[in-house]
C-alpha cells in the first residue's frame, strides 16, 4: 500500500533518475534489524537505479534487487526466523518495499523508453528551414511535341489517329503497296531485315518498317470508307546519317478514302496543315514525285528557314522536303479489296524531324537523338 506521504512524493518516485529521497516512505514502521535491512535495500535500490541509463544496467538492477536471488528475496527468507509479531510487521514492510521497487523498476523502463524516443526524435529532426533540393522536371522530347502538334492539326480537321507495328511483314511494307519483290522501287527504302523469318515464303519476310505506309493497307483491310486517319510512328532505314537524314526517324502517315475525293482535296488539306503548323507566311511547294503506291505522286516542301529560300548548306535549293503524297494507286485499292472505280483517296507521309527543324531553326537532325540535355532543355 502506498501511504498518503508516498503519494505526495509520487511524481518524484516515478522518476528513477531524479534524486528524490525515499526517506518519507521508509520511516513509517518501528525499527527492527530486518526492517532496517529492507530499508537499506530500498535506499541502495534508489541510489543505484539513478545510474541505470541503459536497458542492460536496468536489467542488472532488477536482478540485484528484485531477482529470485536478489537482495529483497534474501531479506524475505529471513522472515522465518522471526517471532510471529515481528514477522507480521517485517513481512508487511517487505511487501510494501517490494511494491515500491517494482514501481521503481517500471518507472525506470518508462524513463528509458522516453529517452530512446527523444533520441530518435532528435536524430530524425526535420529542419524545415533548409532549402529544398530542386527536382529536375522532365519535359516532352521536341519530336514528341511535334508529333502531337501534327496530330492536333489533323484531328481538328476530322482525322482519326491510329498506330501500328514497327516490326512489319514484307507484305504490308511493300507488296500490298504496289511494290512487288525485285521491283527497283524497293531500293528507295534501304531496308533493315529481321533474320529469323522464312525468306522462301513470299511476303512473309519480316523487317523494321521503312515507312508508316504499311498502315494504309492494314487500315483499309479492316475498315470500309469513308476513312480519314493519320498514323504517327517510328521507321527505320539502313541509311548513312547527315544533317537531314537519320537512320531511325518518325513519320506521320495520312490517308483519306471516300467517294469523289480529288487531288484538290489533297492540296487543300496539306496547305491547311502547313498553315496551322508553320503559320501563314511560310511558302509551300508541291513537285511531281514518284511513289509506287500513288498516281499521281508529289512531294511537298517548305522554304528553308536558314536561307529563306535562297539555297544553302542545309537545304541545297532553298526548300526542305517534308513529305511525299499522292492519290492512292488503284492497285493498292485492289490489294485491300476496294473497287477503284467506286473509291478514290489521297495519302501522304511526312517526317516530323524535318518539320521540327523548320519550326525551330535547327540545322542538324542528329541533335534530336544525341541525348544532350542542353539541347533538349530548350524545347
Ligand atoms: C508518299 C506517298 C503516300 O501516298 C504516302 C506516303 C508517302 C511517303 C513515303 N511512304 C515515304 O516514306 N517517302 S519518303 O521516303 O520520301 O519519306 C517521307 C518523309 O520522311 C520525307 O519527306 C522526309 O520528311 C522524311 N524522311 C525520309 N527519310 C528520312 C526522313 N527524315 C529523316 N531522316 C531520313 N533518313
Bound molecules: 5'-O-[N-(L-tyrosyl)sulfamoyl]adenosine
CATH class of the largest domain: Alpha Beta
Give a quick account of the main beta sheet: strands, pairing sense, barrel closure: 7 strands, mixed
| Fraction of residues in H or I helices | 40-55%
Q: What coarse outline follows from CA principal-axis ratios? A: rod-shaped
What's the mean pLDDT score?
Answer: 88
The first-to-last residue Cα distance is: 80 Å
Radius of gyration: 45 Å
Q: Mind telling me which CATH architecture of the largest domain this is?
A: 2-Layer Sandwich
Number of domains: 2
| CATH overall fold name of the largest domain | BirA Bifunctional Protein, domain 2
Runs with pLDDT <50, length 5+?
1-17
Question: What's the order of the H and E elements?
Answer: HHHHHHHHEEHEEHEEHEEEHEHH
Structural class, judged by helices and strands?
alpha+beta
Short note summarizing the structure:
The chain is α+β, with helices and mostly antiparallel strands and 379 residues long. It has helices at residues 4-8, 10-14, 23-26, 33-49, 55-66, 71-77, 84-123, 142-155, 170-173, 214-222, 263-278, 330-335, 352-360, 373-376, and strands at residues 160-161, 167-169, 192-193, 206-208, 227-236, 248-258, 284-289, 294-303, 319-328, 344-350.
Structure description:
It is a single chain. The protein folds into two domains: 19-124, no CATH class; 142-376, BirA Bifunctional Protein, domain 2. Helices cover 40% and strands 17% of the residues. It contains 14 helices and ten strands. 5'-O-[N-(L-tyrosyl)sulfamoyl]adenosine is lined by residues 211, 213, 237, 239, 245-246, 249, 251, 253, 291, 293-294, 321-326, 347-351, 353-354, 365. 5'-O-[N-(L-tyrosyl)sulfamoyl]adenosine binds at residues 211, 213, 237, 239, 245-246, 249, 251, 253, 291, 293-294, 321-326, 347-351, 353-354, 365.
